[in-house]
Design a protein that fits this description.
heterodimer; A: alpha/beta; six-stranded parallel β-sheet; 22 helices; B: alpha+beta; Alpha-Beta Plaits
C-alpha cells in the first residue's frame, strides 16, 4: 500500500519538492493544520508578517529579486481578502507567486460560516489561475500545477484554497514529475519566419529604438545578457519601462533612460520620432504611450511578447513575435549575425546626433538648494553613496517612486522592485522584507514616501523580529506628493485632502519598533546620515525631510503625446485639456 | 492631427465598425470555468449576446461554450486572445471571421388563444416547420429550430396571436465541411 499523508503534510512536501525555502504568512483557524505541519518541519522558514497584504508583497519582493516563485500562506475569510491587493499587484506586474489560503471545511462552504468568504470567486479576476481543492487526493497535483502555471509563460499569481477538512484527510502524495497540465502549454519559442522579418526591418531602420520591459527581467538573467548583446551589436538606442529597469545597464552610452509619463526627453522623443520600434517584453501601457492616437506616428513596430493578448491590445504591431524574451533575443542575434546585418551607418549616426541634442536638454535637471533637501538630490546622494555595493531597491508609489526610477541607476536586473501596474502604495516596505530574506547580506533600501509607507508600516515589526536590516528611506514632503502635483496641474491648486496634518515622528516611531531612526533636514547633513544608515546592521527608518513643493518632472500630461512633455525649465504651468482631465 | 496608418487605433467611430461574431470555446469541464469566461467578458467590458454551454466529451470532460459577441475587429481579436489566456481553455475558434460556420438555435414558444387566432398560430407554425410539443384546448407549445433571425421572425408573428412566453437556447454553431475544427 502506498504511504498516505495528511493534506497539510502534502502541502509541505510539495513545497519542499518545488524547492521552496521561505514562505510568508499569517496563521488563523482555517490553516492551523498546515501551520502544525510547518511546526514539525525544519527546512522551510516561515516569516510571520503583521498583515496579509504584507505577506504577498514580501513574496513579490522575494520572487522579483531571485527569479523564484514567492509563497504565501494565509487563513480563510479576512486572511484571504487582505491578500487580494497583493495578489492583484502580482497579476498586473506578472510576478510568480503561490498563495495558499485556508477555507472553512467543505461541508460548511456556502453556509456563511465564521471567517468564510468565496475566495476563489473573489480572486478569480485577480489571479492567473486559482483552485478550490475539495479532495485531499487532488492536493499534490494541484500544488505542482500551480507552480507550473505561476512560473511559466507570462508569470502571475495562483491561489490554492484548501478547506480545513482537506488539510486533515489522508491521501497519497504525487511527485512533481508525475504531474503535467492538461491544457496549459505556453509558447516560448518565437516563429522564426517572423523573427527574420523583424531582423530585416531592423536592418533597414534609419531611426530605430529598442523599447524593453519587465518581460526581459521575467525571462531571467540570460535574457538581459542577450539584450545587451543585441543592443550593442546593432548600435541602436534603448529605453526601458519602469518594470524593465536594470535589464540594460544605465551607465551605457546607448541607454536613453526610462520612457513614459516621467521618462526622459530623449527617450520619449526617440519613441515619437523613430521609424522602427523594437518592443521586447513591454505592453504599451498607458503610462508609456501617452495619447494613443499620437503615439510614435511614423514607426513600424515589432512586438515581442510571451502573452498573445498583449499583441495589438492598444497599439497595432506590424510584426508580432510570440515567445519568451530570451528565446527570441537569441534567435534575433543569430539571424542578425548570420546575415551580417548592419543598419545604414550614416543614418544611424545622424539619428544619434539628433538624440544627443535631446539629451543636451538635461530633462532630469532640477534647481539645487543649499537650505532644503531636494528629493532628487537625496536620491542622487543615496545612489552615489551606495554605488559598488550589492544594492536592491524597492519603492512605494508616487513622486518618490518616479524620482527613484529617474535618479537611481541600475546596472543589473532583479535589483529594482516596484509596483508598476497596480500602483500599490505600501508595496515597498514589505517587499524589502522579502528581498532581504532572499539576500541576507545585501543592502536593501525601500525608497519611500511618508504617506505610502504608513500603509504597511506595521511590517517594521516583522523586520525587527527576523533581524532584517532593511533601510526605509522616506522622502518626507508631508504631502501625497503626486496627488498634490496633479491637483496643482489639473485642479487649480485646490489641495483637497492631500496634506497629512498629523505625521508620526518617524525617528521615535523607529525606536518604538525597536529599530533605528535617523533624520536629515538639511543638504549639509545628508551624506553623513546616509553613511550612518548604511553602516547600521539593523532595520532603519530614515526620515529625509525634503522640499514639500517639488514637482516630479519631466512629465507628459494626461491626454498628451510624447512630444508634448513639460520640462523642468519651462516656466509656465502646463495646460491639461478637458479630455486629459478625465484620464488618470 | 493626422491619422497614422500602422500606428495606433483611432478610437472614434468604433461603434460604427462593430461586427457580430460567434466563438466556439473548448474548455475543461471543471468548477468555475464558466465563471472565468463570463467574468472576463464583464470585467473587460465585452458584450455577450448569447451563450450556450454543455459538456460535449463525457470521457475527456471537455465542454463547448458558444458565445455570440460583438465589437470592432480589434476588440474581437482581443476577446479571442483573452479567452485563450484562461488556463482551462483548450481552443478558441471564430466561426464567423476565421472559419465559416452554421448557426442554429432552438426555442420553445407558448401561445394561448382560441378561434381564428389559434388556427392562424398553427398555420404559421407549419410554415416555419415548428413542432407542437404540448397542447391544451387553449394553448400550444411550439418547438422551433433555426437561425436566430428565423426564430425572431416566428416570435414576432406569434405576438398578435397570443404569445405568452418564449424560452431560447442561445446559438450553437459548427464549422462547415468535413473537417473538425
Amino acid at each position: 500500500m502506498t504511504q498516505e499523508f495528511t493534506g497539510a503534510e502534502i502541502v509541505i512536501r510539495a513545497l519542499k519538492e518545488q524547492g521552496v525555502e521561505v514562505i510568508f504568512g499569517y496563521p488563523g483557524g482555517a490553516v492551523l493544520p498546515i501551520y502544525d505541519a510547518l511546526f514539525q518541519d525544519d527546512q522551510i522558514r516561515h516569516v510571520l508578517v503583521r498583515h496579509e497584504q504584507g505577506a504577498v508583497h514580501a513574496a513579490e519582493g522575494y520572487a522579483r529579486s531571485t527569479g523564484k516563485p514567492g509563497v504565501v500562506l494565509v487563513t480563510s475569510g479576512p486572511g484571504a481578502t487582505n491578500a487580494v491587493t497583493g495578489i492583484t499587484d502580482a497579476l498586473m506586474d506578472s510576478i510568480p507567486i503561490i498563495v495558499l489560503t485556508g477555507q472553512v471545511p467543505t461541508h460548511l462552504i456556502g453556509s456563511d460560516a465564521f471567517q468564510e468568504c468565496d475566495t476563489v470567486g473573489i480572486t478569480r479576476p485577480c489571479t492567473k489561475h486559482n483552485y478550490l481543492v475539495k479532495r485531499a487526493e487532488d492536493l499534490a497535483r494541484v500544488m505542482h500545477e500551480a507552480f507550473y502555471v505561476a512560473t511559466t509563460g507570462r508569470p502571475g499569481p495562483v491561489v490554492i484554497d484548501i478547506p480545513k477538512d482537506v488539510q486533515f484527510k489522508k491521501a497519497a502524495y504525487t511527485g512533481k514529475a508525475n504531474v503535467s497540465h492538461r491544457t496549459y502549454r505556453p509558447q516560448t519559442k518565437g516563429d522564426l519566419k517572423r523573427i527574420k522579418e523583424a531582423v530585416e526591418l531592423m536592418a533597414s531602420a534609419r531611426k530605430p529604438v529598442f523599447y524593453t520591459g519587465g518581460g526581459v527581467i521575467n525571462a531571467g538573467p540570460r535574457a538581459s545578457k542577450l539584450l545587451r548583446e543585441l543592443v550593442r551589436l546593432t548600435g541602436f538606442p534603448i529605453t526601458s519601462t519602469l518594470m524593465g529597469l536594470g535589464a540594460y545597464p544605465a551607465s551605457d552610452r546607448q541607454w536613453l533612460g526610462m520612457l513614459g509619463m516621467h521618462g526622459t526627453y530623449e527617450a520619449n522623443l526617440a519613441m515619437h520620432r523613430c521609424d522602427v520600434m523594437i518592443n521586447i517584453g513591454a505592453r504599451f501601457d498607458d503610462r508609456v504611450t501617452g495619447r494613443l492616437d499620437a503615439f510614435s506616428p511614423s514607426s513600424k513596430k515589432i512586438h515581442v511578447d510571451i502573452d498573445p493578448s498583449s499583441i495589438n491590445k492598444t497599439v497595432r504591431a506590424d510584426i508580432a513575435v510570440i515567445g519568451d524574451a530570451a528565446e527570441v533575443l537569441a534567435d534575433m542575434i543569430a539571424v542578425w549575425k548570420s546575415g551580417r546585418k548592419e543598419a545604414e551607418p550614416q543614418a544611424l549616426a545622424q539619428w544619434w546626433k539628433q538624440i544627443d541634442t535631446w539629451r543636451a536638454r538635461k530633462s532630469l535637471s532640477y534647481k539645487k538648494s543649499d537650505t532644503v533637501i531636494k528629493p532628487q538630490f537625496a536620491i542622487e546622494r543615496l545612489y552615489t553613496l551606495t554605488r559598488g555595493r550589492k544594492t536592491f531597491v524597492s519603492t512605494e508609489v508616487g513622486q518618490h517612486q518616479m524620482w527613484a526610477a529617474q535618479h537611481f541607476h541600475f546596472e543589473e536586473p532583479n535589483r529594482w522592485m516596484t509596483s508598476g501596474g497596480l500602483g500599490t502604495m505600501g508595496y515597498g516596505l514589505p517587499a524589502a522584507v522579502g528581498i532581504q530574506m532572499a539576500h541576507p547580506d545585501a543592502l536593501v533600501i525601500d525608497i519611500a514616501g511618508e504617506a505610502s509607507v504608513q500603509m504597511t508600516m506595521q511590517e517594521m515589526s516583522t523586520a525587527v523580529q527576523y533581524d532584517l536590516p532593511i533601510k526605509i528611506f522616506i522622502l518626507n514632503n508631508q504631502y501625497m506628493g503626486m496627488v498634490r502635483q496633479w491637483q496643482q496641474l489639473l485642479h487649480g491648486g485646490r489641495y483637497s485632502h492631500s496634506y497629512s496634518e498629523a505625521l508620526p515622528d518617524f525617528v521615535r516611531l523607529a525606536e518604538a519598533y525597536g529599530c533605528v531612526g535617523l533624520r536629515a533636514s538639511t543638504p549639509g547633513e545628508l551624506d553623513a546620515k546616509i553613511e550612518e544608515m548604511i553602516s547600521i546592521k539593523r532595520p532603519v527608518l530614515f526620515d529625509c525631510v525634503v522640499d514639500p513643493n517639488e514637482n516630479c518632472l519631466p512629465m507628459i500630461p494626461s491626454g498628451k503625446a510624447h512630444d508634448e512633455m513639460i520640462l523642468p525649465d519651462m516656466v509656465d504651468a502646463p495646460t491639461v485639456s478637458e479630455e486629459g482631465k478625465v484620464l488618470v | 492631427m493626422s491619422q497614422q496608418p500602422g500606428s495606433a487605433y483611432f478610437l472614434v467611430d468604433a461603434r460604427a465598425r462593430e461586427i457580430r461574431t460567434t466563438l466556439a470555446v473548448i474548455v475543461d469541464n471543471e468548477p468555475g470555468v464558466l465563471a472565468r469566461v463570463v467574468g472576463l467578458f464583464s470585467g473587460r467590458g465585452y458584450n455577450i449576446e448569447s451563450l450556450t454551454v454543455a459538456e460535449t466529451d463525457h470521457i475527456g470532460h471537455t465542454s463547448r461554450i458558444t458565445i455570440v459577441t460583438s465589437g470592432t475587429v480589434e476588440i474581437i481579436e482581443q476577446i479571442k486572445a483573452q479567452i485563450g489566456r484562461l488556463i482551462p481553455v483548450h481552443r478558441v475558434i471564430d466561426l464567423s471571421l476565421d472559419k465559416p460556420g452554421i448557426e442554429r438555435e432552438m426555442a420553445l414558444v407558448k401561445v394561448a388563444g382560441s378561434g381564428d387566432k389559434r388556427v392562424e398560430a398553427l398555420r404559421v407554425s407549419e410554415a416555419f416547420r415548428a413542432r407542437v410539443i404540448d397542447t391544451t384546448h387553449s394553448s400550444f407549445v411550439f418547438e422551433i429550430t433555426g437561425a436566430p433571425e428565423k426564430i425572431d421572425a416566428f416570435v414576432d408573428l406569434m405576438k398578435p396571436l397570443g404569445l405568452v412566453e418564449v424560452s431560447r437556447t442561445g446559438v450553437v454553431a459548427i464549422s462547415r465541411g468535413a473537417e473538425a475544427m
